[in-house]
Amino acid sequence: MTARKSGFILGAVAGAGVAAAALAGAGMRMGTADAAETPPAAHAAMAPVANFAPPPGAPMSFADIFEKVSPAVVQIDVTSKAAASPRLRIPGLEGFDIVPRGQKPGAEGEEDAPAAPKQQSSGSGFFISADGYIVTNNHVVADADEIKVVMKDGRELKATVVGRDEGTDLAVIKVTDPKAKGADFPYVDFENQAKPRVGDWVITIGNPFGLGGTATAGIISAYNRDLGDSSSRFVDYIQIDAPINRGNSGGPSFDIYGRVIGVNTAIFSPTGGSVGIGFAIPADVAESTARQLISGGKVVRGYIGANIQDFNPEMAEALGMPDVKGVIIAELVAGAPGQKAGLLPEDIVTAVNGVAVKTGSELTREVAKSRPGEPIKLSVLRGGKPRTIEVKSGVRPSEDSLGAGDDNAEGGANPTPEKPQTQKFEALGLSLAPIDAAARAAFKIDPDLKGLLITGVKTDSDAGEKGLAKGDVLAGINGMTVGSAADVNAAVAAARKAGRPSVLAKVVRQGRPLVMALKIAP
């Protein structure tokens, strides 16, 4: 990374030191005043109050720290293309694209397709170098057509994407506005050595709900959090309770010395707002990723080519290995480095390059640290006997090519499922498929929702005219759950036998159920 050491972060440290010194001074002055002016009996009665004084080094205010680091934090405004389908607003069908009868939505690439409207979104980011490099989240800028950076002093500057990494949900952008030529931007440094403890202060600055620079504070709540999505293959998240909300994505978390310890990325919330559970990407992961993005525009990770599962206690008990923790090889990719090196299905990997691994995510992270061509030493149990297998690392394919949402390529919980078979139902104008793990991740489908995934919609069908789309779930027909092609065919056949022109369908989109009548084609 091109970030250079300067007085900026040293100034933040000095500010923290001044705050601590002021605190100590205040305590000393208070003690002097008490001793000089308070009668002995009253002084003794007040003594327990000292137990509530902040410990040495804990500031009574974070104002000095915020003042030092906040100029390096920016608001990121993104303009991107929205869905191009024309809409009608019909009560009860909000969120569905309603195409007027007789008008077909323009297909991609057609000359008469309506121009895609623009949409605006905002996030946060922070300078990591004086020459304008900014770290943020990939999901903030992934679809950006235009990026505007708003600084604390009100300047609005154009920026462009340098590189994005879907694996960690990190991105680097750079200010390219001619107005900023020669500018020396304030920046902050990552802290990879002095790791705060659970319970230590954490300070965040960001752009929640588009409000602009907002400061919050809390504590480190936990380390090594797995969010249960594909990003957890590469990230052991920090859990914090400093309030963060939508728009804080990409903003920094600081320690009390003004050093970046994480990049705010996600919240756990049933309401969409902060409930005190937020997650940040650790500084070491963020810095390593940013360095690679700046130097080459992408992140290159090691790869052995294996589908894996956690070696759970039930498996261990079945094999008479109650004390063994590790990862079991479920399947090997033909011709990939693991197979070439002699790994076998049902091998149990207990360590990678000497680092113990207990979960698939841990194994994936350790393998990913290797550069292509480097040797990876796997500690393996085969038939209960230990051995070491050296694998020459390959290059991990893109997450898209591995399968969006597939949690099994060196980091998942189950063997890779076969691609679900899509079937067309001409009577309803729909193509349907079983809902697999990849679909649930890609379309954010609730794990308990039963039904069939809509993978295609005939545009001139009643379903097409009513705005059904790929990624929606057909959850029921005529009050009955549908989980197979037979269920759909039976429901349509029953409606036809009864002389009904349509079926009553329950459709779920992004967690919201709606009921609508779908006409049956002749």
CATH topology of the largest domain, which one?
Thrombin, subunit H
CATH top level of the largest domain is Mainly Beta
Apparent shape = globular
**Mean pLDDT, nearest integer?**
78
Determine Rg (CA atoms, Å): 28 Å
Number of helices: 12
Low-confidence segments, given as residue ranges, are 1-52, 84-101, 104-111, 404-408, 411-419
Terminal-residue CA separation: 64 Å
| Quantity of strands, as a count | 27
Q: Which structural class do you get from the secondary structure elements?
A: alpha+beta
Question: What can you tell me about this protein's structure?
Answer:
The chain is of the alpha+beta class and 522 residues long. It has four domains: 7-67; 68-106 and 115-299, Thrombin, subunit H, CATH 2.40.10; 302-402, Pdz3 Domain (Roll), CATH 2.30.42; 423-519, PDZ domain (Pdz3 Domain, Roll), CATH 2.30.42.10. Helix content is 21%, strand content 31%. The protein has twelve helices and 27 strands. It has helices at residues 7-37, 40-46, 63-69, 138-141, 283-296, 313-318, 337-341, 360-368, 399-402, 437-443, 462-465, 485-497, and strands at residues 73-81, 118-127, 133-137, 146-150, 156-165, 170-175, 201-206, 214-225, 237-240, 252-254, 260-267, 278-282, 302-303, 306-311, 326-332, 348-352, 355-356, 375-382, 385-392, 394-395, 423-425, 430-434, 452-457, 473-477, 480-481, 502-509, 512-519. Strands 21, 22, 23, 24, 25, 26 and 27 form a seven-stranded antiparallel sheet that branches. A six-stranded antiparallel beta barrel has the order 1-2-3-6-5-4. Strand 26 (502-509) and strand 27 (512-519) form a beta hairpin. Mean pLDDT is 78; it is low at 1-52, 84-101, 104-111, 404-408 and 411-419.
